[in-house]
C-alpha cells in the first residue's frame, strides 16, 4: 500500500459541521490555539492585577488597609505561578505551538486532533481549579510560588487548608493537559512535515517550540510527582517532605520527611521550565528579527544546535536555585559550573541575533521594536544571571530584590516582549486584519521604557540588601530612606506599565472589529504560513494540495534575485532573477 | 555501516544529515512515535517516584523494615519470604510473552489469534492486579497505612502504597486498553485498512508497564 501522510488522508479531516464543532469543541489546531491563547491571556490579566496590588503595598506601606500580610503572600504566590505556568507556558506552547507548528511545517493539522482538543479542555479545567482557590475558605495558597514544604502545608500559612490542595490539583491537571498537547507537538514536527521540509529547513520558531516541548515532557513529570507527594502529605498524613518539627507550640504529626527532596524535584521541573518558556521565545524572536531586518538569520545551524544544547544543559543545572537551601555545599561547585556553561550557547544566540541585524534593511515595525527590545532585556537579565550563578555571589544576593529583578528581566519581561512581538507579527494572519501601528508603538515604548524604570532600581535595592518576600520593611538600620523612595517610584512605574497594557487590548479589539483588511503576507515573509490560499487559513490550511518546500525559511535579500525574499514554497525555476542569463543557485539549505 | 565509516568523523555529520532529512526517509507511524514519547515521559514520573523513595529511605529516622519479613506468606505451615511477589512478577513477565505473541500474529493479520492472545494478556494483567489487592489487604490488616507502619519507618507504608498503587493503576488501564483493542479486532474494525499497528502500540505500553515493575521489584522488595 502506498504511503499516504496522515495529514493527506481524507478520513482524518474532521470538517466542522456546526457552530459548536467549529468554535467550541473544535479539533482544528488554529481554533485550539486561539482558545489556549485567550484563556492564558485572561488568567494572565488576573496575575497582572495581583502584581499591581503587590506593588501598591510595597511602594506605599500602611496606606492600603485592604491588603493585609495574608493577602500579600497570596498575591505573590498566585502571581508567580500564573505567570510562569498558566500564562507563559500555555501561551507559547498551547497558543503559538498549536498555531504555528502545522502551518510552518506544511501540515493540515496536528497528528491527533482529538487529543489536542482534550489538551485544551484539561488546561481550561486546571485554570478553573486554580481560579476556584480564590473562593475557598482561607483563600489561595500563600506559600510562595515555589510551594516549599514544610510551610506550604503547615497551619499558619495562608491557604494551608484548601488553597494549597486546589493548587496541587490544578498543577497535576495542567501536567496532564500539557502532556496531551506536547505529545502532539513533538510527533507532528517529526511525522507530519510536508515534502521537502527537512529538519534543517524548519523555521527556528518550530525548533524552539519542538525542543521546549521535549523539555516539558521530561520536566513536568517531576512537578506532577512532587504535587502528588505533597497532596498525600497533606491529605493522608504521610511524611515525604515533612520533617519532625514544632509548629504553633505543638509538634506536628509528621516525622522523617525531607523538605530538600521537594526542592530538588521542584527545581528539576523548575529550571527546565525556564527554558520551556525561553526556547520558544528564542525561536519566535529569530523569525521576527530575520523577517523585519530583511536578512537571513545569522548562523542558522548554530542557532539550532544552541537550542538543542541549552535544552540538554537545562536538566543539569537545577540546584543553582538551592545554594541557600542547606543542601550539600559541594553540589554548589558542580551546579555553578554547569550553570555558567549555559552562557556559551546563549551568548551564541545573542551574537547571532545582533549579527542578523548587522547591515540589515531594518523595518521599524511594531513586532520588530518588541523583538529588538527583547535583545536588550535579555542581555540585561542574562548578565545578572552570571552573578547569581556563582555560589559565593549568590549567597548574599539570593534573598534580596536582586533576584527578583534578575528573573523578571530574563524570564518575565523578555518572554513577554517576544509574546507581544509574536502577537503583532502573526496578528494579520490569525485575524485577517491589520492592527493599529500608532497604538502598537505607544504600547511598545511604554512597556519597554517602563520595565526598565521598574527593574533597574530594583537591582540597586537588592544590592543594598533589601530582602524579598517581605510584606513591609519597617525601620531597620541597613535600609536607607532612599530605598523607600525608590520603592514608591517603582510602584508608580509599574502602575503606568500596567495601564499601558490597556492600549494593547484596545488595539486588538479595535482591529478585530474594524481593522484594515490584511494582506496575506504583509511582512513579505518566506515561511509557509504566509502563503496559505486563504487568510486567515481555512480548515485544512492548504486547499487541495500540500505545499512543497525547496529551501530554508530565511531567503532574504539573496544576491541576484529580483524580490528581496524568496518564499520556501517557490520552485527554483520560478524565482525571478534581476538580470537575464543568471542561473539561480539554490541555497545549500 | 562498515567499521571504517564509524572510525571516520565525517560519519557523524552524515548521521545528522540522514536524521534531519525528510520524514519519508525514516518513516515511523505517528501512533508508534507518540507512544514511545509518552513512555519516555512516563519513565520520568516513575524515576521521580523511585528517587523520592531512595531519598526518604535515607532521611527517615526510624529503621527501614526488612522486606522479606514484611512480604512473607504463611503457606502450608511454611514461612515463605517474598513468595507472593515472586508469583506476581512471574505472572506479569509471562503476560509480556503472550503480548509479544499477539504482536507476532498481528504481522500475519491472524485476527483470531491476536484476539485470544490479547485477552490472555489482559487476564494475566487482571490476575496481577487481583494479587496486588490481596497483598494490600494483607498489609492493611497487619496495620500498615500510608501514614503508619508497625514494622518500622512510616515512609515504608507511604511509598509502598503510592508506588505500587500508581503502577497498579497503569496495569489496570493497560487491561482496559487491551480489552478495548481486542474487541475492536474481533469486530473487524481494522479489516478495511489492514493496519494492525495498534496491537504493537498496545504492546509497547504493556511491555513498559512490565519493565517498570522489574525496577519496583528490585528497588522495593529485594533491597
Describe the structure.
The complex is a heterodimer of chains A (589) and B (223). By secondary structure, chain A is mostly helical. Chain A has a single domain (24-242, 255-574), classed as Cytochrome C Oxidase, Chain A, CATH 1.20.210. Chain A contains 14 helices and 2 strands; from the N terminus they run ααααααββαααααααα. In chain A, strands 1-2 form a two-stranded antiparallel sheet. In chain A, helix 6 packs parallel to helix 8 (300-313). In chain A, 54% of the residues are buried. Residues 1-7 of chain A have low confidence and may be disordered. Chain B has 223 residues and is mainly alpha-helical. Chain B has one domain (27-221): Up-down Bundle (Four Helix Bundle (Hemerythrin (Met), subunit A)). Chain B is built from 8 helices and 2 strands. Chain B has helices at residues 3-7, 10-19, 30-59, 67-70, 83-107, 111-141, 154-187, 197-221, and strands at residues 72-75, 78-81. In chain B, strands 1-2 form a two-stranded antiparallel sheet. The model of chain B is unreliable at 1-7 (pLDDT under 50). The interface between A and B is large, with 49 and 39 residues.
Short account of what is shown:
The complex is a heterodimer of chains A (589) and B (223). Chain A is mainly alpha-helical and 589 residues long.
Attribute tags:
heterodimer; A: 589 residues; mainly alpha; Cytochrome C Oxidase, Chain A; 14 helices; 2 strands; 61% helix; disordered N terminus; B: 223 residues; Four Helix Bundle (Hemerythrin (Met), subunit A); two-stranded antiparallel sheet; 74% helix; 4% strand; globular
Amino acid at each position: 500500500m502506498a504511503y499516504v501522510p496522515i495529514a493527506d488522508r481524507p478520513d482524518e479531516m474532521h470538517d466542522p459541521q456546526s457552530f459548536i464543532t467549529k468554535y467550541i469543541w473544535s479539533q482544528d489546531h488554529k481554533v485550539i490555539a486561539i482558545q489556549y491563547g485567550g484563556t492564558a491571556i485572561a488568567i494572565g490579566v488576573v496575575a497582572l492585577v495581583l502584581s499591581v496590588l503587590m506593588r501598591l503595598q510595597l511602594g506605599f506601606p500602611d496606606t492600603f488597609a485592604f491588603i493585609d500580610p495574608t493577602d500579600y503572600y497570596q498575591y505573590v504566590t498566585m502571581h508567580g505561578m500564573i505567570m510562569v505556568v498558566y500564562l507563559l507556558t500555555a501561551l507559547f506552547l498551547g497558543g503559538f505551538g498549536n498555531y504555528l507548528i502545522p502551518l510552518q511545517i506544511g501540515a493540515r493539522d496536528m497528528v491527533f486532533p482529538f487529543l489536542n482538543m482534550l489538551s485544551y479542555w484539561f488546561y481550561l479545567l486546571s485554570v478553573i481549579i486554580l481560579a476556584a482557590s480564590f473562593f475557598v475558605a482561607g483563600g489561595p495558597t500563600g506559600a510562595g510560588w515555589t510551594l516549599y514544604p514544610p510551610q506550604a502545608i503547615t497551619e499558619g500559612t495562608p491557604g494551608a487548608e484548601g488553597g494549597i490542595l486546589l493548587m496541587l490539583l490544578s498543577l497535576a491537571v495542567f501536567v496532564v493537559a500539557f502532556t496531551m498537547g506536547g505529545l502532539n507537538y513533538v510527533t507532528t514536527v517529526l511525522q507530519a512535515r510536508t515534502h521537502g521540509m527537512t529538519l534543517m529547513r524548519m523555521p527556528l520558531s518550530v525548533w524552539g517550540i519542538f525542543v521546549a516541548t521535549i523539555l516539558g515532557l521530561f520536566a513536568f513529570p517531576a512537578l506532577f510527582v512532587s504535587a502528588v507527594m505533597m497532596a498525600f502529605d497533606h491529605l493522608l498524613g504521610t511524611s515525604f517532605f515533612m520533617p519532625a518539627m514544632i509548629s504553633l507550640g505543638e509538634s506536628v504529626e509528621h516525622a522523617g520527611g525531607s523538605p530538600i527532596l521537594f526542592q530538588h524535584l521542584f527545581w528539576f521541573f523548575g529550571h527546565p521550565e525556564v527554558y520551556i518558556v525561553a526556547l520558544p521565545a528564542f525561536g519566535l524572536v529569530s523569525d521576527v528579527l530575520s523577517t523585519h531586518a530583511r536578512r537571513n538569520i545569522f548562523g542558522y545551524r548554530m542557532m539550532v544546535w544552541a537550542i538543542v544544547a541549552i535544552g540538554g544543559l537545562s536538566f543539569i543545572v537545577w540546584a543553582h536555585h538551592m545554594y541557600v537551601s542547606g543542601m550539600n555545599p559541594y553540589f554548589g561547585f558542580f551546579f555553578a559550573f554547569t550553570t555558567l556553561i549555559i552562557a556559551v550557547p546563549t551568548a551564541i544566540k545573542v551574537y547571532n541575533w545582533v549579527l542578523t541585524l548587522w547591515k540589515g534593511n531594518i523595518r521599524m515595525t511594531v513586532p520588530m521594536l518588541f523583538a529588538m527590545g527583547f535583545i536588550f532585556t535579555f542581555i540585561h537579565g542574562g548578565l545578572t544571571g552570571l552573578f547569581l550563578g556563582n555560589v559565593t555571589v549568590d549567597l548574599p544576593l539570593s534573598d534580596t530584590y536582586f533576584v527578583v529583578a534578575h528573573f523578571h528581566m530574563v524570564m518575565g519581561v523578555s518572554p513577554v516582549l517576544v509574546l507581544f512581538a509574536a502577537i503583532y507579527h502573526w496578528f494579520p494572519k490569525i485575524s485577517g486584519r491589520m492592527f493599529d501601528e500608532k497604538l502598537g508603538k505607544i504600547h511598545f515604548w511604554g512597556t519597554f521604557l517602563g520595565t526598565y524604570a521598574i527593574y533597574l532600581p530594583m537591582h540597586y535595592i537588592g544590592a543594598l540588601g533589601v530582602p524579598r518576600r517581605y510584606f513591609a520593611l519597617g525601620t531597620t538600620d541597613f535600609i536607607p530612606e532612599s530605598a523607600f523612595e525608590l520603592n514608591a517610584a517603582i510602584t508608580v512605574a509599574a502602575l503606568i506599565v500596567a495601564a499601558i497594557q490597556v492600549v494593547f487590548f484596545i488595539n486588538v479589539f479595535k482591529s478585530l472589529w474594524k481593522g484594515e483588511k490584511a494582506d496575506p503576507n504583509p511582512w513579505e515573509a518566506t515561511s509557509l504560513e504566509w502563503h496559505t490560499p486563504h487568510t486567515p487559513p481555512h480548515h485544512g490550511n492548504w486547499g487541495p494540495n500540500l505545499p512543497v518546500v525547496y529551501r530554508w525559511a530565511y531567503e532574504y535579500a539573496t544576491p541576484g534575485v529580483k524580490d528581496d525574499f524568496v518564499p520556501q514554497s517557490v520552485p527554483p525555476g520560478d524565482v525571478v532573477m534581476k538580470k537575464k542569463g543568471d542561473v539561480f543557485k539554490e541555497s545549500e539549505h | 555501516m562498515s567499521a571504517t565509516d564509524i572510525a571516520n568523523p565525517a560519519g557523524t555529520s552524515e548521521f545528522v544529515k540522514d536524521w534531519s532529512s525528510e520524514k519519508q526517509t525514516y518513516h515511523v507511524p505517528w501512533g508508534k512515535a507518540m507512544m514511545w514519547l509518552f513512555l519516555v515521559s512516563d519513565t520520568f514520573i516513575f524515576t521521580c517516584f523511585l528517587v523520592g523513595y531512595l531519598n526518604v529511605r535515607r532521611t527517615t529516622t526510624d529503621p527501614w523494615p526488612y522486606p522479606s519479613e514484611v512480604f512473607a506468606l504463611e503457606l502450608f505451615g511454611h514461612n515463605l519470604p517474598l513468595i507472593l511477589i515472586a508469583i506476581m512478577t512471574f505472572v506479569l513477565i509471562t503476560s509480556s510473552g503472550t503480548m509479544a505473541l499477539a504482536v507476532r500474529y498481528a504481522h500475519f493479520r491472524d485476527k483470531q489469534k491476536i484476539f485470544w492472545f490479547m485477552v490472555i494478556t489482559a487476564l494475566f494483567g487482571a490476575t496481577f492486579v487481583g494479587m496486588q489487592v490481596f497483598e494490600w489487604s494483607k498489609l492493611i490488616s497487619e496495620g500498615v497505612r500510608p501514614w503508619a507502619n508497625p514494622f518500622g519507618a512510616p515512609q515504608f507504608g507511604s511509598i509502598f502504597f503510592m508506588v505500587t498503587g500508581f503502577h497498579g493503576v497503569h496495569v489496570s488501564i493497560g487491561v482496559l486498553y487491551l480489552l478495548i483493542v481486542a474487541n475492536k479486532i474481533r469486530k473487524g474494525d481494522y479489516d478495511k485498512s489492514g493496519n494492525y499497528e495498534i496491537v504493537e502500540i498496545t504492546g509497547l505500553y504493556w511491555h513498559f508497564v512490565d519493565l517498570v515493575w522489574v525496577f519496583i521489584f528490585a528497588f522495593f522488595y529485594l533491597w
